[in-house]
Amino acid sequence: MIVDKALYVSGVRRPCGDLSDELNRLRTQKEGFLWIGLKDPTDAEFALVNDELGLHPLAVEDAVKGNQRAKIELYDQSMFVVLKTLRYLEATSDIETGELMVFVGDRFVVTVRRGEGNPLMGVRQRLEREPEQLSIGPAAALHAVMDSVVDNYVRVDTELQYDLEAIEQAVFSGNPDVDANTIYRLKREVLEFRRACVPLSESMRRLGETGGMAFFPKSVRPFFRDVQDHLLRVMDHVESYDRLLSDILSAHLAAVSVQQNTDMRRISAWVGMAALPTMVAGIYGMNFEHMPELTAKFTVNGFDVYYGYYLVLLIMAGATFFLYRNFKRHKWL
Question: What architecture (CATH level 2) is domain 2-256?
Fold first, then answer.
């Protein structure tokens, strides 16, 4: 749907009538521009805007299909920008990805937003409070949109940093609640972050150097370079997060392996201590007739005392205690 449309002349908002008529008037007067905001538009709504403004067919095809790579495409008379919007969800520590497409022409700007990440209402309102900046034209609107998206990257970057520090502390403190799935999920979120910001870097560099289109004044180039600087700083952080998460995952798996080895040694020690008395008891359970311990005795006051049973129990207990001391000394228990 069309969430907002307005005409801006000398940085002042004015009501917008028929799109094609307003656009022809603007091109004749060579002042002002048209800004149309779409949110999850239907094919009919998008076709209406396309018919009125005459957008480039390749850009329209990408906008209709959606799910595009972040990029900036320059055509003869227009520019097509695809931005990935991000929103951090506190409840699940996940990153929700949306898509924002911007068509920029000589006297118009069309923003097409898909998903809930990074709404643009605040961007338009802030820019309307700065008529001098808005009077620059479509380049000012494009800069404000890109600056808002990249600033949101910075906020998501901060949240990811907190999550990373929490997982790092939990892993190296031996917290049993942390498992490989938790680390992998965060690594997956970092990957989504990289897909959003990394492809945009080269296009932002060219935009800051050349200004993009002929109708972009040179005065806006420093503003685009400033956005690029913020983007590069976020990219550096994201790259370091990816490497650090790989190291944390390796450390976690190594700690799990060490713990498993410790558990196996402990189990083996207990099995060894249980095996010796079991073996001795098994020998005496074979019921052989000629076993000296069965008939070993001494006589006290005319009574025969058979001590073989007690002697075997003592040997079993002594041998088990000996094994226990040795396992304890070697830190198997």
Answer: 2-Layer Sandwich (3.30)
